[in-house]
Task: structure prediction
Amino acid sequence: MTSSRQRQLRDIDTDGVADRRRQSGLAVAERGMTHSTPVVATIQGVRQVVFATQSGLVSVDPLSGSLLWRFNTVRLLPVARGLAVVYQNMVFVCGAHAYNMGSVVMQASLTNGTWTTGAALVDQ
Result:
């Protein structure tokens, strides 16, 4: 028998998100995946999965795979590398030090059902 927690974990695995992206119109894989692990977090009271992709950060609903928000880091960091770290409504991601890339702290806000994102801190 599968517990509720096991079903939740199964629902947020990357294969499950990839399957649901066709239904939601979100193409996480098409944004250029990196070798970082997705992070499950609660931002502004909303449970979500944050992916660090080659073009930036992408957040999806863990159950439906629907896009919540995206943040393009290409103009700030050519390629995001490493694990995204979430604290409250901020997400930290860094570029590869070997390629002289910096880091960025992105801030997400939810107002009247609409997500907005912006750079809170950039170190290049």
Observations:
- Residues 4-123 form a domain with the Thrombin, subunit H fold (CATH 2.40.10.480).
- Confidence is low (pLDDT under 50) at residues 21-27.
- Residues 25 and 91 are 24 Å apart (CA to CA).
- The chain has one domain: 4-123.
